[in-house]
Design a protein that fits this description.
1 helix, 7 strands, binds zinc ion, three-stranded antiparallel β-sheet
């Protein structure tokens, strides 16, 4: 049985993504892909050096995310996190 799902282009996600990116980043909760530890981003280890920063898990030391800025762009790599949970304003 073929099922076709309707979709729209990525512009439709602009509003929800803007809301997420406006949240205080240190309150966002992430889960380490290596050890499964879950914590807010404020409860990590951050290393500066080179062209950016690296955020590491306090549980196992694995890289959770990195931010690298060049003269033309900023690259955010979150491959060390299984998911991010953004708190809602209450
Ligand atoms: Zn970990």
């Amino acid at each position: 049985m073929d099922t076709e799902y309707a979709y729209v282009d990525g512009n439709a996600a602009a509003g929800p993504l803007q809301e997420l990116l406006a949240v205080e980043p240190t309150t966002v909760q992430g889960q380490c892909t290596t050890c499964g530890r879950t914590s807010v981003l404020a409860d990590t280890r951050v290393y500066f050096g080179g062209p950016g920063l690296v955020m590491r898990c306090r549980g196992c030391g694995s890289e959770l995310l990195s931010v690298v800025t060049t003269p033309t762009s900023t690259r955010l790599d979150v491959s060390g996190l299984t998911c991010l949970t953004f708190p809602l304003e209450t």
